[in-house]
Amino acid sequence: MYDGLQRPLEVLSRKTGEFIARGVQASPLPEDKLWRFVPSLEVGSSVGPGSQLGAVAESHIIEHRILVPPNLKGRVVEIHEGDFNIHDTVAVLETRGEDGISRVEIPLAQRWPVRQPRPYQTRLAPREPLISGTRIIDAFFPVAKGGSAIIPGGFGTGKTVTEHSLARWADADVVVYVGCGERGNEMTEVLEEFPTLEDPRTGAPLMKRTVLIANTSNMPVAAREASIYTGITIAEYYRDMGYDVLMLADSTSRWGEALREISGRLEEMPGEEGYPAYLAARLAEFYERSGRVACLGGSQENGVPQRYGSVTVIGAVSPPGGDFSEPMTQNSMRVVGTFWALDYDLSRRRHFPAINWTRSFSLYDLREWYRGRVAPDWDDLTREALALLQREVELLEIVQLVGPDALAETERAVLASARMLREDLLQQSAYHGVDRYCPASKAYWMLKAIMDFHHRTQSAVQSGVPLQKVSALPTVTEIARMKELPLDEAETHIKMVMDHVRSGFAEWGVN
Ligand SMILES: Nc1ncnc2c1ncn2[C@@H]1O[C@H](COP(=O)(O)OP(=O)(O)OP(=O)(O)O)[C@@H](O)[C@H]1O
Ligand SMILES: [Mg+2]
Questions:
Q1: b vs e for 67-86, b when ≥16 Cβ sit within 10 Å of the residue's Cβ?
Q2: What is the pLDDT at residue 100?
Protein backbone atom coordinates (compact mmCIF):
# COMPACT_ATOMS: atom_id res chain seq x y z
CA MET A 1 0.00 0.00 0.00
CA TYR A 2 1.63 3.17 -1.26
CA ASP A 3 1.03 6.85 -1.56
CA GLY A 4 1.30 8.56 -4.97
CA LEU A 5 5.11 8.61 -4.81
CA GLN A 6 5.36 4.91 -4.02
CA ARG A 7 6.18 5.46 -0.37
CA PRO A 8 4.75 2.67 1.77
CA LEU A 9 2.00 4.18 3.91
CA GLU A 10 2.53 1.81 6.81
CA VAL A 11 6.13 2.91 7.17
CA LEU A 12 5.17 6.57 6.83
CA SER A 13 2.55 6.29 9.55
CA ARG A 14 5.10 4.76 11.88
CA LYS A 15 7.49 7.60 11.08
CA THR A 16 5.19 10.63 11.14
CA GLY A 17 1.76 9.57 12.39
CA GLU A 18 -1.60 9.93 10.66
CA PHE A 19 -0.59 12.73 8.32
CA ILE A 20 2.37 12.72 5.98
CA ALA A 21 4.98 15.28 6.97
CA ARG A 22 6.94 17.26 4.40
CA GLY A 23 9.98 15.55 2.92
CA VAL A 24 9.71 12.12 4.56
CA GLN A 25 11.49 9.37 2.72
CA ALA A 26 10.86 5.65 2.82
CA SER A 27 11.98 2.81 0.60
CA PRO A 28 9.09 1.37 -1.46
CA LEU A 29 10.18 -2.15 -0.54
CA PRO A 30 11.44 -3.27 2.88
CA GLU A 31 15.23 -3.06 2.73
CA ASP A 32 16.05 -5.50 5.50
CA LYS A 33 13.66 -8.31 4.59
CA LEU A 34 15.31 -11.42 3.16
CA TRP A 35 13.79 -13.21 0.19
CA ARG A 36 14.59 -16.74 -0.99
CA PHE A 37 15.93 -16.47 -4.54
CA VAL A 38 15.93 -19.65 -6.66
CA PRO A 39 17.87 -19.34 -9.93
CA SER A 40 16.49 -20.84 -13.09
CA LEU A 41 19.70 -20.38 -15.13
CA GLU A 42 23.23 -21.60 -14.77
CA VAL A 43 26.58 -19.85 -15.01
CA GLY A 44 27.51 -19.51 -18.66
CA SER A 45 23.98 -18.93 -20.02
CA SER A 46 23.68 -15.99 -22.33
CA VAL A 47 20.82 -13.67 -21.48
CA GLY A 48 19.13 -10.63 -22.98
CA PRO A 49 16.67 -7.97 -21.84
CA GLY A 50 13.84 -9.57 -19.90
CA SER A 51 15.40 -13.05 -19.58
CA GLN A 52 14.32 -14.72 -16.38
CA LEU A 53 17.18 -15.29 -13.97
CA GLY A 54 15.15 -16.94 -11.26
CA ALA A 55 12.21 -16.40 -8.96
CA VAL A 56 11.20 -15.34 -5.47
CA ALA A 57 8.00 -16.57 -3.86
CA GLU A 58 6.26 -13.25 -3.16
CA SER A 59 3.11 -14.92 -1.85
CA HIS A 60 1.32 -18.26 -2.36
CA ILE A 61 -0.08 -17.05 -5.63
CA ILE A 62 2.50 -14.68 -7.05
CA GLU A 63 5.81 -16.03 -8.17
CA HIS A 64 7.93 -12.91 -8.47
CA ARG A 65 10.12 -13.52 -11.49
CA ILE A 66 13.50 -11.83 -11.40
CA LEU A 67 14.30 -10.57 -14.88
CA VAL A 68 17.30 -9.04 -16.58
CA PRO A 69 16.60 -5.25 -16.77
CA PRO A 70 15.33 -4.11 -20.20
CA ASN A 71 18.64 -2.52 -21.28
CA LEU A 72 21.12 -5.30 -20.50
CA LYS A 73 22.53 -8.22 -22.44
CA GLY A 74 25.40 -10.58 -21.71
CA ARG A 75 26.54 -13.83 -20.16
CA VAL A 76 25.87 -15.01 -16.62
CA VAL A 77 29.18 -15.35 -14.76
CA GLU A 78 27.78 -15.69 -11.25
CA ILE A 79 24.36 -16.64 -9.93
CA HIS A 80 23.50 -17.73 -6.41
CA GLU A 81 20.65 -19.44 -4.65
CA GLY A 82 20.00 -18.10 -1.18
CA ASP A 83 18.35 -15.48 1.01
CA PHE A 84 18.88 -11.92 -0.16
CA ASN A 85 17.58 -8.45 0.57
CA ILE A 86 16.42 -6.33 -2.36
CA HIS A 87 19.80 -4.65 -2.91
CA ASP A 88 22.01 -7.76 -2.64
CA THR A 89 23.55 -9.03 -5.84
CA VAL A 90 21.96 -12.27 -6.95
CA ALA A 91 23.70 -12.56 -10.31
CA VAL A 92 26.59 -11.00 -12.20
CA LEU A 93 26.51 -10.51 -15.97
CA GLU A 94 29.46 -10.02 -18.24
CA THR A 95 28.47 -7.53 -20.90
CA ARG A 96 30.31 -6.48 -24.01
CA GLY A 97 30.14 -2.74 -24.61
CA GLU A 98 32.08 -0.15 -26.62
CA ASP A 99 34.71 0.09 -23.90
CA GLY A 100 35.33 -3.66 -23.64
CA ILE A 101 33.92 -6.26 -21.30
CA SER A 102 32.36 -5.12 -18.05
CA ARG A 103 30.67 -6.84 -15.12
CA VAL A 104 27.16 -5.78 -14.09
CA GLU A 105 25.73 -6.82 -10.73
CA ILE A 106 22.02 -7.54 -10.69
CA PRO A 107 20.05 -7.10 -7.45
CA LEU A 108 16.47 -8.28 -6.82
CA ALA A 109 14.95 -4.79 -7.11
CA GLN A 110 14.74 -2.75 -10.30
CA ARG A 111 14.23 0.98 -10.85
CA TRP A 112 12.26 2.42 -13.74
CA PRO A 113 11.24 6.00 -14.66
CA VAL A 114 7.46 6.02 -14.39
CA ARG A 115 6.70 8.22 -17.38
CA GLN A 116 8.46 5.89 -19.75
CA PRO A 117 6.53 2.80 -20.88
CA ARG A 118 8.42 -0.45 -20.15
CA PRO A 119 9.48 -2.14 -23.38
CA TYR A 120 8.13 -5.45 -24.70
CA GLN A 121 8.83 -7.66 -27.66
CA THR A 122 5.63 -7.44 -29.71
CA ARG A 123 2.14 -6.18 -29.14
CA LEU A 124 -0.65 -8.71 -29.73
CA ALA A 125 -4.29 -8.26 -30.54
CA PRO A 126 -6.51 -8.77 -27.47
CA ARG A 127 -8.40 -12.05 -27.76
CA GLU A 128 -9.71 -12.95 -24.35
CA PRO A 129 -12.21 -11.03 -22.24
CA LEU A 130 -11.40 -9.96 -18.71
CA ILE A 131 -14.28 -11.73 -17.00
CA SER A 132 -15.58 -9.30 -14.41
CA GLY A 133 -18.34 -11.23 -12.67
CA THR A 134 -20.77 -8.42 -13.54
CA ARG A 135 -23.37 -9.69 -16.02
CA ILE A 136 -24.00 -6.56 -18.03
CA ILE A 137 -20.26 -6.18 -18.58
CA ASP A 138 -19.45 -9.78 -19.44
CA ALA A 139 -22.49 -10.34 -21.63
CA PHE A 140 -22.90 -7.05 -23.46
CA PHE A 141 -19.90 -4.75 -23.05
CA PRO A 142 -16.82 -6.85 -22.26
CA VAL A 143 -13.34 -5.44 -22.01
CA ALA A 144 -10.47 -7.53 -23.36
CA LYS A 145 -7.46 -8.61 -21.33
CA GLY A 146 -5.02 -5.94 -22.48
CA GLY A 147 -7.81 -3.54 -23.40
CA SER A 148 -8.91 -0.29 -21.87
CA ALA A 149 -12.22 1.02 -20.62
CA ILE A 150 -13.69 4.05 -18.93
CA ILE A 151 -16.63 4.38 -16.54
CA PRO A 152 -17.97 7.91 -16.80
CA GLY A 153 -20.83 8.86 -14.53
CA GLY A 154 -22.18 11.74 -12.53
CA PHE A 155 -22.09 12.07 -8.77
CA GLY A 156 -23.23 8.92 -6.95
CA THR A 157 -23.98 6.81 -10.02
CA GLY A 158 -21.72 3.94 -8.94
CA LYS A 159 -18.24 4.52 -10.36
CA THR A 160 -16.47 3.59 -7.17
CA VAL A 161 -18.69 0.59 -6.45
CA THR A 162 -18.11 -0.71 -9.99
CA GLU A 163 -14.35 -0.21 -9.76
CA HIS A 164 -14.22 -1.94 -6.38
CA SER A 165 -16.24 -4.81 -7.68
CA LEU A 166 -13.88 -5.16 -10.66
CA ALA A 167 -10.89 -5.06 -8.31
CA ARG A 168 -12.46 -7.85 -6.28
CA TRP A 169 -13.74 -10.25 -8.88
CA ALA A 170 -12.08 -9.65 -12.25
CA ASP A 171 -9.99 -12.63 -13.33
CA ALA A 172 -6.62 -10.86 -13.32
CA ASP A 173 -3.48 -12.21 -11.66
CA VAL A 174 -2.51 -8.87 -10.17
CA VAL A 175 -4.67 -5.82 -9.49
CA VAL A 176 -3.31 -2.28 -9.10
CA TYR A 177 -5.91 0.07 -7.63
CA VAL A 178 -5.16 3.78 -7.76
CA GLY A 179 -7.34 6.00 -5.59
CA CYS A 180 -6.69 9.32 -7.27
CA GLY A 181 -8.05 12.37 -5.51
CA GLU A 182 -11.13 10.61 -4.10
CA ARG A 183 -12.26 9.99 -0.51
CA GLY A 184 -9.90 8.29 1.92
CA ASN A 185 -12.61 6.16 3.53
CA GLU A 186 -13.09 4.33 0.24
CA MET A 187 -9.48 3.17 0.39
CA THR A 188 -9.98 2.17 4.02
CA GLU A 189 -12.96 0.08 2.97
CA VAL A 190 -10.77 -1.80 0.49
CA LEU A 191 -8.06 -2.26 3.09
CA GLU A 192 -10.48 -3.63 5.66
CA GLU A 193 -12.46 -5.81 3.33
CA PHE A 194 -9.97 -7.34 0.90
CA PRO A 195 -8.05 -9.47 3.41
CA THR A 196 -11.35 -11.11 4.40
CA LEU A 197 -12.50 -11.90 0.83
CA GLU A 198 -11.34 -14.86 -1.20
CA ASP A 199 -10.22 -14.69 -4.79
CA PRO A 200 -12.71 -17.00 -6.59
CA ARG A 201 -9.88 -18.45 -8.71
CA THR A 202 -7.18 -19.19 -6.17
CA GLY A 203 -8.95 -19.15 -2.80
CA ALA A 204 -6.25 -16.82 -1.44
CA PRO A 205 -7.22 -13.52 0.24
CA LEU A 206 -7.76 -10.84 -2.39
CA MET A 207 -5.19 -8.62 -0.70
CA LYS A 208 -2.44 -11.04 -1.78
CA ARG A 209 -2.80 -9.97 -5.38
CA THR A 210 -3.64 -6.29 -4.87
CA VAL A 211 -1.43 -3.19 -4.92
CA LEU A 212 -3.11 -0.09 -3.52
CA ILE A 213 -1.96 3.40 -4.38
CA ALA A 214 -3.70 5.99 -2.27
CA ASN A 215 -3.54 9.58 -3.30
CA THR A 216 -6.71 10.67 -1.62
CA SER A 217 -8.32 14.10 -1.78
CA ASN A 218 -6.36 15.43 1.21
CA MET A 219 -3.00 14.58 -0.34
CA PRO A 220 -1.01 16.96 -2.58
CA VAL A 221 -2.64 17.66 -5.94
CA ALA A 222 0.62 17.41 -7.88
CA ALA A 223 1.11 13.84 -6.67
CA ARG A 224 -2.13 12.77 -8.38
CA GLU A 225 -0.33 12.67 -11.67
CA ALA A 226 2.52 10.69 -10.12
CA SER A 227 0.07 8.19 -8.64
CA ILE A 228 -1.36 7.35 -12.07
CA TYR A 229 2.08 6.83 -13.58
CA THR A 230 3.33 4.85 -10.58
CA GLY A 231 0.30 2.59 -10.90
CA ILE A 232 0.72 1.88 -14.59
CA THR A 233 4.45 1.24 -14.18
CA ILE A 234 3.88 -1.30 -11.42
CA ALA A 235 1.26 -2.90 -13.67
CA GLU A 236 3.75 -3.12 -16.54
CA TYR A 237 6.38 -4.55 -14.23
CA TYR A 238 4.12 -7.50 -13.37
CA ARG A 239 3.03 -7.79 -16.99
CA ASP A 240 6.68 -8.33 -17.93
CA MET A 241 6.76 -11.33 -15.60
CA GLY A 242 3.97 -12.86 -17.69
CA TYR A 243 0.91 -11.92 -15.67
CA ASP A 244 -2.48 -10.50 -16.60
CA VAL A 245 -2.67 -7.25 -14.69
CA LEU A 246 -5.67 -5.01 -14.13
CA MET A 247 -5.10 -1.37 -13.32
CA LEU A 248 -8.00 0.68 -11.99
CA ALA A 249 -7.97 4.44 -11.48
CA ASP A 250 -10.66 6.29 -9.53
CA SER A 251 -10.99 9.00 -10.70
CA THR A 252 -9.02 10.12 -13.76
CA SER A 253 -10.92 13.41 -13.64
CA ARG A 254 -9.02 14.37 -10.50
CA TRP A 255 -5.80 13.80 -12.40
CA GLY A 256 -7.17 16.02 -15.19
CA GLU A 257 -7.91 18.72 -12.61
CA ALA A 258 -4.36 18.44 -11.30
CA LEU A 259 -3.05 18.89 -14.85
CA ARG A 260 -5.23 21.97 -15.22
CA GLU A 261 -4.01 23.45 -11.97
CA ILE A 262 -0.33 22.78 -12.65
CA SER A 263 -0.58 24.04 -16.20
CA GLY A 264 -2.27 27.20 -14.91
CA ARG A 265 0.53 27.86 -12.47
CA LEU A 266 3.08 27.35 -15.23
CA GLU A 267 1.15 30.01 -17.18
CA GLU A 268 0.72 27.76 -20.19
CA MET A 269 -1.82 28.61 -22.87
CA PRO A 270 -5.09 26.97 -21.74
CA GLY A 271 -7.12 24.75 -24.07
CA GLU A 272 -10.75 23.70 -23.85
CA GLU A 273 -12.40 24.48 -20.47
CA GLY A 274 -9.04 25.56 -19.06
CA TYR A 275 -7.46 22.13 -19.43
CA PRO A 276 -3.98 22.20 -20.95
CA ALA A 277 -3.82 21.84 -24.72
CA TYR A 278 -1.91 18.56 -24.34
CA LEU A 279 -4.69 16.89 -22.31
CA ALA A 280 -5.74 14.61 -25.18
CA ALA A 281 -2.14 13.55 -25.83
CA ARG A 282 -1.53 12.78 -22.14
CA LEU A 283 -4.67 10.67 -21.91
CA ALA A 284 -3.85 8.79 -25.10
CA GLU A 285 -0.30 8.11 -23.93
CA PHE A 286 -1.64 6.74 -20.67
CA TYR A 287 -4.32 4.46 -22.11
CA GLU A 288 -1.91 3.25 -24.80
CA ARG A 289 0.18 1.68 -22.08
CA SER A 290 -2.50 -0.99 -21.79
CA GLY A 291 -2.09 -3.99 -24.07
CA ARG A 292 -1.43 -7.68 -24.44
CA VAL A 293 2.20 -8.35 -25.28
CA ALA A 294 4.81 -10.99 -25.89
CA CYS A 295 7.27 -10.11 -23.13
CA LEU A 296 10.97 -9.49 -23.61
CA GLY A 297 13.24 -12.45 -22.96
CA GLY A 298 11.32 -14.95 -25.06
CA SER A 299 12.28 -18.29 -26.45
CA GLN A 300 14.68 -17.42 -29.28
CA GLU A 301 17.77 -16.96 -27.15
CA ASN A 302 17.74 -19.84 -24.72
CA GLY A 303 14.83 -22.17 -25.28
CA VAL A 304 12.81 -20.57 -22.47
CA PRO A 305 9.07 -20.60 -23.18
CA GLN A 306 7.70 -17.26 -24.38
CA ARG A 307 5.94 -15.27 -21.66
CA TYR A 308 2.75 -13.38 -22.47
CA GLY A 309 1.32 -10.69 -20.26
CA SER A 310 -1.30 -7.99 -20.36
CA VAL A 311 -2.24 -4.73 -18.73
CA THR A 312 -5.92 -3.80 -18.75
CA VAL A 313 -6.65 -0.21 -17.78
CA ILE A 314 -10.02 0.90 -16.43
CA GLY A 315 -10.49 4.53 -15.49
CA ALA A 316 -13.42 6.18 -13.78
CA VAL A 317 -14.32 9.62 -15.11
CA SER A 318 -16.40 12.11 -13.11
CA PRO A 319 -17.87 14.61 -15.57
CA PRO A 320 -19.35 17.59 -13.72
CA GLY A 321 -23.13 17.33 -13.83
CA GLY A 322 -22.89 13.96 -15.59
CA ASP A 323 -22.39 15.77 -18.90
CA PHE A 324 -20.38 13.48 -21.18
CA SER A 325 -19.49 16.24 -23.62
CA GLU A 326 -16.76 17.65 -21.37
CA PRO A 327 -13.08 17.25 -22.41
CA MET A 328 -12.00 14.44 -20.00
CA THR A 329 -14.83 12.11 -21.09
CA GLN A 330 -14.56 12.95 -24.78
CA ASN A 331 -10.77 12.61 -24.98
CA SER A 332 -10.76 9.36 -23.00
CA MET A 333 -13.63 7.91 -25.01
CA ARG A 334 -11.67 8.38 -28.22
CA VAL A 335 -8.80 6.16 -27.11
CA VAL A 336 -10.46 3.36 -25.12
CA GLY A 337 -12.13 0.22 -26.43
CA THR A 338 -14.98 -0.09 -23.93
CA PHE A 339 -17.30 2.59 -22.62
CA TRP A 340 -19.60 1.95 -19.66
CA ALA A 341 -21.89 4.95 -19.48
CA LEU A 342 -23.37 5.27 -16.01
CA ASP A 343 -26.81 6.73 -16.05
CA TYR A 344 -28.21 9.08 -13.47
CA ASP A 345 -31.81 7.96 -14.11
CA LEU A 346 -30.98 4.31 -13.62
CA SER A 347 -29.11 5.00 -10.40
CA ARG A 348 -31.99 7.13 -9.12
CA ARG A 349 -34.36 4.22 -9.77
CA ARG A 350 -31.81 2.06 -7.91
CA HIS A 351 -31.14 -0.04 -10.98
CA PHE A 352 -27.51 -1.07 -10.26
CA PRO A 353 -25.05 -1.34 -11.90
CA ALA A 354 -26.40 1.79 -13.60
CA ILE A 355 -24.67 1.01 -16.91
CA ASN A 356 -26.84 2.36 -19.71
CA TRP A 357 -27.23 -0.28 -22.42
CA THR A 358 -28.02 2.12 -25.21
CA ARG A 359 -25.07 4.49 -24.68
CA SER A 360 -22.35 2.01 -23.72
CA PHE A 361 -20.17 0.19 -26.23
CA SER A 362 -17.39 -2.35 -26.56
CA LEU A 363 -15.18 -2.43 -29.64
CA TYR A 364 -13.47 -5.73 -28.82
CA ASP A 365 -14.36 -8.76 -30.87
CA LEU A 366 -14.29 -11.57 -28.32
CA ARG A 367 -17.02 -13.72 -29.84
CA GLU A 368 -14.61 -16.52 -30.72
CA TRP A 369 -13.56 -16.91 -27.09
CA TYR A 370 -17.12 -16.87 -25.72
CA ARG A 371 -18.28 -19.33 -28.36
CA GLY A 372 -15.48 -21.75 -27.52
CA ARG A 373 -15.31 -21.28 -23.76
CA VAL A 374 -18.85 -20.50 -22.63
CA ALA A 375 -21.41 -21.60 -25.21
CA PRO A 376 -21.68 -21.83 -29.01
CA ASP A 377 -24.85 -19.70 -29.03
CA TRP A 378 -23.54 -17.03 -26.63
CA ASP A 379 -23.18 -14.48 -29.36
CA ASP A 380 -26.66 -15.00 -30.85
CA LEU A 381 -28.25 -14.83 -27.42
CA THR A 382 -26.55 -11.63 -26.31
CA ARG A 383 -27.24 -9.93 -29.63
CA GLU A 384 -30.90 -10.88 -29.47
CA ALA A 385 -31.19 -9.74 -25.86
CA LEU A 386 -29.63 -6.38 -26.65
CA ALA A 387 -32.01 -5.97 -29.60
CA LEU A 388 -34.91 -6.75 -27.27
CA LEU A 389 -33.78 -4.02 -24.85
CA GLN A 390 -33.47 -1.63 -27.78
CA ARG A 391 -36.99 -2.52 -28.90
CA GLU A 392 -38.22 -1.77 -25.40
CA VAL A 393 -36.88 1.79 -25.65
CA GLU A 394 -38.78 2.33 -28.91
CA LEU A 395 -42.00 0.86 -27.55
CA LEU A 396 -41.79 2.93 -24.38
CA GLU A 397 -41.52 6.03 -26.52
CA ILE A 398 -44.76 5.07 -28.26
CA VAL A 399 -46.41 4.44 -24.90
CA GLN A 400 -45.37 7.90 -23.74
CA LEU A 401 -46.76 9.50 -26.87
CA VAL A 402 -50.05 7.70 -27.35
CA GLY A 403 -50.58 5.57 -24.25
CA PRO A 404 -50.30 1.82 -23.60
CA ASP A 405 -53.52 0.96 -25.44
CA ALA A 406 -51.81 1.62 -28.75
CA LEU A 407 -49.64 -1.48 -28.30
CA ALA A 408 -50.49 -4.93 -29.63
CA GLU A 409 -50.47 -7.85 -27.19
CA THR A 410 -47.19 -9.19 -28.66
CA GLU A 411 -45.60 -5.78 -28.15
CA ARG A 412 -46.74 -5.75 -24.56
CA ALA A 413 -45.18 -9.19 -24.27
CA VAL A 414 -41.91 -7.68 -25.54
CA LEU A 415 -42.10 -5.09 -22.78
CA ALA A 416 -42.65 -7.83 -20.21
CA SER A 417 -39.63 -9.82 -21.45
CA ALA A 418 -37.42 -6.74 -21.56
CA ARG A 419 -38.41 -5.94 -18.04
CA MET A 420 -37.48 -9.47 -17.02
CA LEU A 421 -34.08 -8.97 -18.66
CA ARG A 422 -33.55 -5.70 -16.83
CA GLU A 423 -34.67 -6.82 -13.42
CA ASP A 424 -33.59 -10.45 -13.35
CA LEU A 425 -30.41 -10.29 -15.41
CA LEU A 426 -28.94 -6.79 -15.61
CA GLN A 427 -29.64 -5.68 -12.06
CA GLN A 428 -26.96 -7.07 -9.82
CA SER A 429 -26.23 -5.86 -6.33
CA ALA A 430 -22.58 -5.46 -5.44
CA TYR A 431 -23.56 -6.12 -1.83
CA HIS A 432 -25.48 -9.39 -2.19
CA GLY A 433 -23.59 -12.38 -0.75
CA VAL A 434 -23.98 -14.52 -3.88
CA ASP A 435 -24.96 -12.17 -6.64
CA ARG A 436 -21.99 -9.81 -6.29
CA TYR A 437 -19.99 -12.26 -8.41
CA CYS A 438 -21.54 -14.11 -11.35
CA PRO A 439 -19.32 -16.40 -13.44
CA ALA A 440 -19.84 -16.27 -17.21
CA SER A 441 -21.37 -19.75 -17.30
CA LYS A 442 -24.07 -18.75 -14.82
CA ALA A 443 -24.74 -15.53 -16.73
CA TYR A 444 -25.18 -17.64 -19.86
CA TRP A 445 -27.75 -19.98 -18.29
CA MET A 446 -29.69 -17.07 -16.81
CA LEU A 447 -29.80 -15.35 -20.18
CA LYS A 448 -30.76 -18.59 -21.87
CA ALA A 449 -33.66 -19.18 -19.46
CA ILE A 450 -34.99 -15.64 -19.89
CA MET A 451 -34.74 -15.70 -23.69
CA ASP A 452 -36.38 -19.13 -23.72
CA PHE A 453 -39.23 -17.72 -21.66
CA HIS A 454 -39.45 -14.79 -24.06
CA HIS A 455 -39.72 -17.02 -27.16
CA ARG A 456 -42.42 -19.16 -25.59
CA THR A 457 -44.31 -16.07 -24.44
CA GLN A 458 -44.32 -14.76 -28.01
CA SER A 459 -45.67 -18.07 -29.40
CA ALA A 460 -48.31 -18.34 -26.66
CA VAL A 461 -49.52 -14.76 -27.11
CA GLN A 462 -49.61 -15.15 -30.87
CA SER A 463 -51.82 -18.20 -30.48
CA GLY A 464 -54.26 -16.20 -28.37
CA VAL A 465 -53.18 -16.82 -24.77
CA PRO A 466 -53.61 -13.58 -22.76
CA LEU A 467 -50.32 -12.09 -21.57
CA GLN A 468 -51.74 -11.88 -18.06
CA LYS A 469 -51.91 -15.66 -17.85
CA VAL A 470 -48.32 -16.02 -19.00
CA SER A 471 -47.13 -13.47 -16.45
CA ALA A 472 -48.94 -15.38 -13.72
CA LEU A 473 -46.94 -18.58 -14.32
CA PRO A 474 -45.24 -19.61 -11.05
CA THR A 475 -41.92 -20.06 -12.84
CA VAL A 476 -41.71 -16.26 -13.28
CA THR A 477 -40.70 -15.97 -9.63
CA GLU A 478 -38.25 -18.82 -10.08
CA ILE A 479 -36.60 -16.86 -12.87
CA ALA A 480 -36.38 -13.81 -10.61
CA ARG A 481 -34.59 -15.90 -8.01
CA MET A 482 -31.95 -17.35 -10.36
CA LYS A 483 -29.41 -14.69 -9.42
CA GLU A 484 -29.42 -15.86 -5.82
CA LEU A 485 -28.77 -19.52 -6.60
CA PRO A 486 -25.52 -20.78 -5.08
CA LEU A 487 -22.79 -20.80 -7.71
CA ASP A 488 -21.84 -24.47 -7.55
CA GLU A 489 -25.39 -25.62 -8.30
CA ALA A 490 -26.59 -22.71 -10.41
CA GLU A 491 -26.42 -24.51 -13.72
CA THR A 492 -28.44 -27.57 -12.61
CA HIS A 493 -30.99 -25.35 -10.88
CA ILE A 494 -31.43 -23.11 -13.90
CA LYS A 495 -31.89 -26.14 -16.16
CA MET A 496 -34.63 -27.20 -13.77
CA VAL A 497 -36.21 -23.76 -14.00
CA MET A 498 -36.15 -24.14 -17.78
CA ASP A 499 -37.95 -27.49 -17.44
CA HIS A 500 -40.64 -25.73 -15.42
CA VAL A 501 -40.91 -23.06 -18.11
CA ARG A 502 -41.39 -25.78 -20.71
CA SER A 503 -44.09 -27.60 -18.74
CA GLY A 504 -45.79 -24.30 -17.84
CA PHE A 505 -46.24 -23.41 -21.50
CA ALA A 506 -47.08 -26.96 -22.58
CA GLU A 507 -50.74 -26.62 -21.53
CA TRP A 508 -51.16 -23.95 -24.24
CA GLY A 509 -49.57 -26.23 -26.81
CA VAL A 510 -46.33 -24.19 -26.96
CA ASN A 511 -43.16 -26.25 -27.10
N1 LIG B 1 -23.50 -2.30 -8.24
C2 LIG B 1 -24.14 -1.73 -7.21
N3 LIG B 1 -24.88 -2.48 -6.39
C4 LIG B 1 -25.52 -1.92 -5.34
N5 LIG B 1 -25.48 -0.63 -5.04
C6 LIG B 1 -24.77 0.18 -5.83
C7 LIG B 1 -24.06 -0.33 -6.96
N8 LIG B 1 -23.45 0.71 -7.56
C9 LIG B 1 -23.75 1.79 -6.86
N10 LIG B 1 -24.54 1.51 -5.80
C11 LIG B 1 -25.08 2.47 -4.83
O12 LIG B 1 -24.79 3.80 -5.24
C13 LIG B 1 -24.06 4.50 -4.25
C14 LIG B 1 -23.05 5.45 -4.84
O15 LIG B 1 -22.07 4.73 -5.56
P16 LIG B 1 -20.56 5.24 -5.71
O17 LIG B 1 -20.01 5.71 -4.43
O18 LIG B 1 -19.83 4.16 -6.41
O19 LIG B 1 -20.76 6.47 -6.70
P20 LIG B 1 -19.66 7.32 -7.41
O21 LIG B 1 -20.07 7.39 -8.83
O22 LIG B 1 -18.31 6.79 -7.12
O23 LIG B 1 -19.87 8.72 -6.75
P24 LIG B 1 -18.85 9.94 -6.57
O25 LIG B 1 -18.97 10.74 -7.82
O26 LIG B 1 -19.39 10.65 -5.39
O27 LIG B 1 -17.50 9.34 -6.36
C28 LIG B 1 -23.44 3.39 -3.41
O29 LIG B 1 -23.22 3.81 -2.10
C30 LIG B 1 -24.46 2.29 -3.48
O31 LIG B 1 -25.47 2.47 -2.53
MG1 LIG C 1 -16.64 7.54 -6.25
A1: bbebebbbebeebeeeebeb
A2: 84
